[in-house]
Write a structure and sequence with these properties.
6-stranded antiparallel beta sheet; 6-stranded mixed beta sheet; alpha/beta
Amino acid sequence: MIKKLHIYNYALFKNVEIDFTDGFTVISGDTGAGKSIMLDALSLVLGKRVDRFAESSATQKSIIEAEFLLNDSHKKFFNDNDIDFDQETIIRREISINGKSRAFINDTPVLLNVLTQFSHQIVEIFSQHEKLVFKDPKAQFIFLDEVADSNEILLKYRLILKEYNDIKSDINNIKKKGSLSLAELEFLQFQFNELNDAKIKNNEKEIIEEKIKLLENVDSISLALDEMRVLFNNENGAISNINRAKKISQNLDSLSEISNRLESVIIELEDINSDISYLQNSLEADPNELKRMTDRLDLINSLLHKHRLKFVDQLFDLKEDLYNKIEQSESFEVLLNKKEKDLKTKYNQLIKLANILDNNRKKVIPKITNHIEDILKNLGIPHAQFQINLVQTNELHSFGCSYISMQFCANKGGEMKELMRVASGGELSRLMLAIKFLSAQNSSISTLIFDEIDSGVSGEIASLMGNMMQNISKSNQVIVISHLPQIASKAKTHLKVSKQIVDDKTTSIVHKLTSEDRVEEIAKLLSGKNITDAAIKNALDLLNQ
């Protein structure tokens, strides 16, 4: 249940804190006092998008904060979304002066869709607009499946429906691409074979270019190596001279360190001499190597030029792409047949689940229609008739493959009409209340908020609707915005929204009415601003009923 609502700097609400109780709470106030703004603020903290930025201070952001009392059944949601669970959970919505907003649950930032998902588990707001929404088959299916306790099956159905639609999309894409003609396939195969036969390796082009550079300078390199060998190996060469120096140093103990260092130099020089010999031998090994390297480089460059590519790695990617196209073309029929077989399997699964959904719905329809007709009789429609019809179709949708039609007739012998054709606002208000009463018994939502659901009714009918709201409040927190005294008098708690002027500025405030205040407010709802003694007496009578 909602315990507290704090509205800061939102439209006419500058800094208002509202305490709520369990049971039945009514909110009243003059037209324009701020009741709708208050409900709008609550809707924002529950995840509504900021579609209109209410009048507020030009220099301060708006903050709306609501505290809810939860039970352990909500722990899973908190764990799934990595949010700290607290039985007294606080939701906060901050709206900057440019209309951008942030949302928090227990000080953890959350995305708007996460906030909306959570709020749908704890609060349901039913407004005048919702009457029109319930004429939509989607809302009717939601209500019916809630009573039938089919939400798990529906979730499974929708997961398979997504897979079914994905496969349909794959089939369409495969058909659009189609198979290649024989000429196209042969050309792709030729290109692939050409690249495959080339057997190009990673970094091969760079290695060849380095080797060609070496081979092109073989004469000058060979001459240089010969000169180096002479300098290393003749009688007066580097190695001989250093060997002599080493022998001299060995005869003197004071030169032992120098002798060791000369030994290291000799080892290094002999190693270099060995490398020089190896390079000379490799240069002389194959005189045709330069031609082979040049031909290989020409092949690689010609393939790059042919396919308008810059790097060898791109040739590897092209080869893989050609292979995939050839494979896809050759396996077109196989792939298409497999996808169509998968589609049929998913379709059969969907039909099976859709039939289960419809069977569950058909089982509860008599119970629903009887209960709603009984409730409507208690709401002053003694000859009410309510029907729910399911007609199977071949079209799969998010609720199965049936068409739903809810029909209603308020008069004995009258014509049954679909809800969208029910003209009387009062009849529709009572029908919606009856549906919500039944829905509340089958829902885990703890708080129901009604925004002037009583439009189109008055007098005894309003009193009967008030009794119904009292009954709902025995198991749910019920918050009602109403201008009818017959409903306001039934509430356990009465809040009033009013305007005040402070420093030449108009603001809205909310306060809880005392017993005396309630008598005056209900009398005002009965007779208007000029409260009469008769209105006071009638107000007392209503409160004492």
